[in-house]
Design a protein that fits this description.
Length: 552
């Protein structure tokens, strides 16, 4: 197994890294560090978030910068303030007992004069978000003419966020002979364009397959009708009592609405979206980081760059339009080698998108049922029992209270005690879930909607007595209505009439297509029926003739 020292890092830096607790290099570190240490080649690293890429570029960079030279030698551009601050904090940790460097963070939403002051004191490494750096350049507060190394981190996210022009302008202010390292989770053509415009014959490395998700993420989806999504979300949260999760919505309004509903329903939730100012955003993030908020509801843009350890679940209230958004969303879990689950709540219409994402990720999704009320209760009860096992008992302090407690409970048997104790917390769930409906939309195993999943039920005035069988009915629907058997569900052939189920979207075609059609010389009559008990009477016809023909 490789060690950091084998990769060519100095003994001092290796020691610093070990002190932090990194024992073995991650794949991107193993591949990139030896190349970057040379400091003479442009470099492209295709790696997902959470793969350890900050150390992959940070460690070689710390070896390369000269702590006796006070000019700005390295510029790291990152898409968000969170990521920027994370990079600064990682670099400071790595370099603590290694080199005395001034590493300065430049980002929006905080005092610019304070940042200017810090740069003036001598910033050998600047970590910046593009927008604020442009401001600082405009004020001539930063001089990039001495920069030797430029690192573009999460380049695809920076472009997604509309920083293309800013990046162009910033790079134009750096010397032509600098070395550029670019890291990106994906390689859309816009990122490729940056590489070809600004890089010279770069070494290119990929960790895992391009666009392949982190293998530690388990991708799941649940099929639920649109109007049951919020209830399905609550079931998921209740089914995972220890959840520390991030929920994605498409819009700011959805984000707020869901967070507010969750709060009202007693969940420990908050929201993160573009309407928050920096101070509000910081407050939410602090609460999430220290886990006083356990469920954060966010929009795609607001959650970019969030690097919070041990997020157990990412839940998608809808699937994003862009594949890359899915990668970024799900990449918020399973960081630093941990496992995580990404669960998409999809309507039947969206199941096709799951197949597309699967193809692109090259990793399968598992369809999971939405837990039933009984399953939630079971899970909650077990969690409660686990808590009892794990609770820290403060023997000294509780001792003096116990005699009174024993006295109070002395008439209860052990079983009685357990039952009552469990019920204290459990009754709440039991009450809520006692008559909870099944929220699962029926689907086929392969995830495509089961034929009658979104279907309507039809009555037809033909049955066994007319020699109607399933295949004849399917043929009739195909020939007369252009409705293929894929859109048809359960068929129930009775004596003088039958029922069949078919996609609601095809209802008009079925009703219009069978109007005026004759089957064995008998006028076909079809009606939509929602009431399964109402059985319109059909008349028997023994007449033989052409299978089915249209009256002209
Ligand atoms: P990054 O992709 O740089 O955001 O890193 C993701 C997480 O992995 C961070 O929390 C790092 O502290 C952690 N990490 C990076 N490299 C290693 C390593 N070699 N061993 C253990 N943890 C690491």
């Amino acid at each position: 197994m490789k060690s950091f020292q084998n990769l060519g890092l100095s003994r001092e830096l290796t020691k610093a890294v070990e002190l932090i607790g990194f024992e073995t290099p991650t794949p991107i570190q193993e591949k990139a560090i030896p190349v970057l240490l040379n400091g003479n080649r442009d470099f492209i690293g295709l790696a997902q978030t959470g793969t350890g890429k900050t150390a992959a570029f940070g460690l070689p960079l710390l070896e390369l910068v000269d702590d006796t030279d006070k000019t700005t030698q390295a510029l790291i551009l990152a898409p968000t303030r969170e990521l920027g601050l994370q990079i600064v904090s990682d670099l400071e940790n790595f370099s603590e007992n290694f080199k005395a460097l001034n590493i300065v963070a430049i980002y929006g939403g905080a005092s610019i004069s304070e940042q200017i002051r810090k740069v003036k004191r001598g910033a050998q490494v600047i970590v910046a978000t593009p927008g604020r750096l442009i401001d600082m350049l405009g004020r001539k507060a930063v001089n990039l003419a001495t920069v030797k190394y430029v690192i573009l981190d999460e380049a695809d996210e920076m472009l997604n966020m509309g920083f293309k022009e800013d990046i162009d302008e910033i790079l134009s202010k750096t010397p032509g002979e600098k070395i550029t390292w670019l890291f990106s989770a994906t390689m859309p053509k816009e990122v490729r364009a940056i590489a070809s415009n600004y890089m010279d014959n770069p070494v290119e490395l990929t960790v895992g397959e391009k666009n392949t998700g982190n293998v530690n993420i388990e991708h799941q989806y649940m099929v639920v009708s649109e109007h049951d999504k919020y209830n399905a979300l609550k079931r998921l949260l209740d089914f995972n009592p220890d959840i520390f999760g991030l929920i994605f919505c498409r819009t700011r309004i959805d984000t707020q609405r869901i967070a507010e509903s969750l709060l009202k329903d007693g969940y420990n939730a908050d929201s993160l979206h573009g309407d928050l100012n920096q101070a509000q955003r910081d407050k939410v993030m602090m609460k999430f980081r220290n886990r006083s908020v356990r469920i954060l509801v966010a929009t795609d843009v607001a959650a970019r760059g969030i690097d919070v350890e041990s997020i157990s679940h990412v839940i998608h209230m809808n699937l994003p339009d862009e594949m890359e958004f899915y990668t970024h969303r799900s990449g918020r879990t399973a960081r630093a080698g941990k496992k995580g689950v990404s669960i998409a709540l999809v309507s039947t219409r969206e199941t096709g998108k799951i197949r597309q994402i699967e193809k692109s990720l090259k990793s399968p999704f598992r369809q999971m049922p939405i837990p039933t009320g009984t399953e939630v209760c079971q899970k909650q009860l077990l969690a409660l029992m686990r808590k009892i096992h794990e609770v820290k008992v403060n023997d000294d302090e509780i001792e003096s209270f116990l005699p009174a407690v024993y006295e109070e409970l002395k008439d209860l048997s052990k079983n009685e005690l357990i039952k009552r104790f469990a019920s204290i917390e459990f009754n709440r769930f039991l009450d809520y879930y006692r008559d909870a409906p099944d929220l699962n939309v029926k689907t086929r195993e392969n995830g495509s909607p089961e034929r009658y999943a979104t279907g309507s039920r039809f009555f037809i005035n033909l049955g066994k007595m007319d020699s109607l069988d399933k295949s004849t009915l399917l043929e009739m629907l195909d020939d007369c209505c252009g409705v293929s058997k894929k859109a048809v569900g359960k068929i129930d052939i009775k004596g003088a009439y039958s029922f069949f189920e078919a996609d609601t979207a095809k209802a008009e075609e079925i009703l219009a297509g069978l109007k005026g059609v004759e089957f064995r010389n008998r006028a076909v009559r079809v009606e939509l029926t929602d009431d399964r008990k109402a059985v319109p009477k059909g008349k028997k016809s023994g007449k033989k003739g052409k299978k089915f023909s249209r009256k002209r």
